[in-house]
Design a protein that fits this description.
mainly beta, Jelly Rolls, about 15% helix, 2 helices, single chain, about 45% strand, 2 domains
C-alpha cells in the first residue's frame, strides 16, 4: 500500500510530464528533492509563458526627415543664414560632380555678430519640428577641413534654445582635437585627436531631449563613441535649433570647412499590444 507522501509525488510526476507533453511512465520513483526541482521548473515555465504573453512590442517611426545636400545649389531650405558672404556652393576637391557647402570665415567686422569679437561666425541654421521633452532627434552630416584650424576653440555644430539663445551642447575643434562639450556646465564629455585635413568625416548624433535626463549617442565615421548623459533641453517651453559652420573668437586667420549630406530626423516610439 502506498503512503500519502508517495501518492502526492506520483501526482506531481503525472502533472509535470503531462504538462510538458510526455507520456506518463509508470512505476517511476522520485524522492522529495526531485519533487522540489520539478516544482521549480514548472513554475519557471509558467511564469515565462505569462510574461511573454504580456509583452508590448515597440516600433520606431520617423515622423519627419529633412535633408540638405546642396546639389540644388541653393540654401533656401535652411531656416536662417548667418553671414552668407562666407558661404559658397562648390565641387569639393576630387569630386567634380558633387556640390558641397564651402564655409570660409574671416576676422573682418562684417563677420562679427552684432559687432561682438567673441561671435566671429559663418553658420547655417535649421529648426526641427519637434524637440519636446522625451522626444528624439537624429542628426548626421559630413565635414572636411581644407587645413587644420588653429588651436583656439572653433564650434562647428551646436544646439541652442530659440527664446533664451542658450546652448545645450556643442561639437568643437581645437587644432587636431574634436570634442563633445556640454554647454550647460562647459564640461568636455568626449574627445578624439588626430583629426586630419583633406579628409571627410561623418558625424551621427541621436539626441534624447530632456532638461535633466537627456542624452546624446555619438558616432564618428559610423563607429559608436558612446552615450553621453547631459541636459539637452534648456527649458520645457523652448524649442532647440541646430547650427553648423564656424563660430570662434575674432581672428585675422582665414579658415574654412566643407559641409555636406546633412540629415535631421524626428523619431517617435509607438507601443503595439
Amino acid at each position: 500500500m502506498q503512503s500519502a507522501e508517495q501518492v502526492n509525488y506520483a501526482s506531481v510526476t503525472f502533472l509535470f510530464t503531462s504538462t510538458l507533453g510526455f507520456e506518463r511512465t509508470p512505476y517511476v520513483e522520485i524522492n522529495a528533492s526531485m519533487c522540489r526541482i520539478l516544482f521549480i521548473i514548472l513554475a519557471y515555465v509558467f511564469s515565462n509563458n505569462l510574461f511573454a504573453n504580456n509583452k508590448i512590442a515597440k516600433t520606431t517611426v520617423v515622423d519627419n526627415e529633412w535633408q540638405a545636400n546642396f546639389e540644388s545649389k541653393s540654401l533656401v531650405r535652411w531656416s536662417y543664414i548667418l553671414h552668407p558672404q562666407g558661404i559658397r556652393l562648390l565641387p569639393p576637391p576630387n569630386e567634380p560632380s558633387n556640390t558641397s557647402a564651402y564655409i570660409e570665415i574671416k576676422g573682418d567686422a562684417d563677420y562679427l555678430w552684432r559687432g561682438r569679437e567673441d561671435l566671429n561666425r559663418v553658420e547655417l541654421q535649421y529648426k526641427p519640428i519637434n524637440t519636446i521633452d522625451g522626444s528624439t532627434t537624429e542628426v548626421s552630416w559630413r565635414f572636411m577641413l581644407p587645413e587644420l584650424f588653429s588651436d583656439d576653440t572653433h564650434q562647428i555644430a551646436y544646439w541652442e534654445s530659440d527664446s533664451s539663445y542658450q546652448q545645450s551642447f556643442r561639437l568643437q575643434l581645437n587644432g587636431e582635437n574634436l570634442s563633445l562639450v556640454s554647454s550647460v556646465d562647459n564640461k568636455e564629455l568626449w574627445r578624439i585627436s588626430n583629426i586630419k585635413a583633406q579628409h571627410w568625416y561623418s558625424i551621427n548624433l541621436s539626441i534624447t531631449w530632456s532638461i535633466t535626463q537627456g542624452s546624446v549617442d555619438l558616432a564618428l565615421d559610423d563607429e559608436p563613441q558612446g552615450r553621453f548623459v547631459m541636459p539637452t533641453l534648456i527649458a520645457e517651453d523652448e524649442s532647440m535649433f541646430f547650427q553648423l559652420g564656424i563660430l570662434r573668437h575674432q581672428s585675422s586667420r582665414v579658415e574654412a570647412i566643407w559641409l555636406d549630406d546633412i540629415i535631421v530626423r524626428n523619431i517617435s516610439t509607438h507601443q503595439q499590444p
